[in-house]
Amino acid sequence: MTVLLVEDHRALAQWLTGELQHAGWTVVRAGTAAEAQQLVRRRTYDVLLVDIGLPDADGVDLCQELRTITPAPILMITARHDIPERVRALDHGADDYLPKPFAIEELVARMRAILRRTRGEPGPVLECGPARIFVEERRVEVEGQTLTLTRREFDLLVVLARHPGRVFARDALLESAWGYDFYGESNVVDVTIRRLRSRLEPFPALDVQAVRGVGYRLMVVA
Ligand code: CA
User: Fold this and answer.
1) Which stretch of DSSP H or E encloses residue 46?
2) Ligand 1 centre and the CA of 81: distance in Å?
3) For ligand 1, a single-atom ion, which residues have Cβ within 5 Å?
4) How close is the Cα of 77 to the center of ligand 1, in Å?
5) Interval between CA 62 and ligand 1 midpoint (Å)
6) How far is the C-alpha of 81 from the C-alpha of 92, rounded, in Å?
7) Could you tell me if 100 and 200 lie in one domain?
8) Distances (CA, A) of 36 to 30, 52, 63, 69, 114
9) What's the gap in Å between 9 CA and the centre of ligand 1?
10) In the listed set 56, 90, 119, which residue is the last one of a domain according to the structure?
């Protein structure tokens, strides 16, 4: 699988390249919109990962142009959190977007999801006790009921549910669900866990436990 990464921020591009290679992707890099257009004309890519803020063009305009050159799915990376910007990206041919900062796990999952959608394949299901977690659709069912979770609650649940019984330190949870450059209070983990716990309250078989001085774990109670 080959991804074209269009990102002018050198350090971020380097970090992403390493992480994506680690996840099994071949990465080709472009630092400008002009370079991206040249590269896309030369060969086909499985996914195009395009930063919205480029030095020589607006990422959304680039996306619209790329659409006329290639059928490859486009995932936009955006630093802007405003909804009109996201809508504009989707309206101009982006298949999905991911606001910065993001966790690499989420980026890789979205890239896989995009590929699967374009090929019409179903996504994997993570089973944990009575919970069925449709990771790529970002949907959870417990005992047949769909749970409504926020993005962070969902991310934390996925991390915990992948290894029921394992204790995760706060820092590890913070990094998994909030990403590489989160600067804020580390009590966001505690606050989000509390909310997740209250959402799981109707299902006693799923017990999010605090382990004093260490972190949290998800226990599946038989
Ligand atoms: Ca940029």
Assistant:
1) none
2) 14
3) 8-9, 51, 53
4) 9
5) 13
6) 17
7) no
8) 5, 13, 10, 11, 20
9) 5
10) 119
pTM score: 0.60
- CA of residue 29 to ligand 1 center, whole Å: 13
**pLDDT tens column, 134-150:** 887 889 999 989 999 99
Last residue of a domain, one of 92, 119, 146: 119
Report H helices in the chain.
10-22, 33-42, 59-69, 83-91, 104-119, 151-162, 170-178, 187-200
Q: What is the CATH number of the domain that holds 201?
A: 1.10.10.10
* CA 51 / ligand 1 centre spacing (Å): 6
Domain assignment of residue 185, given as a range: 125-220
Q: Is 169 found in the same domain as 113?
A: no
55: cis peptide before it, omega within 30°?
A: no
Residue-wise pLDDT tens digits, 169-180: 988 898 888 875
Residues 51 and 104 in one domain: yes
**pLDDT reading at 42 higher than 90:** yes
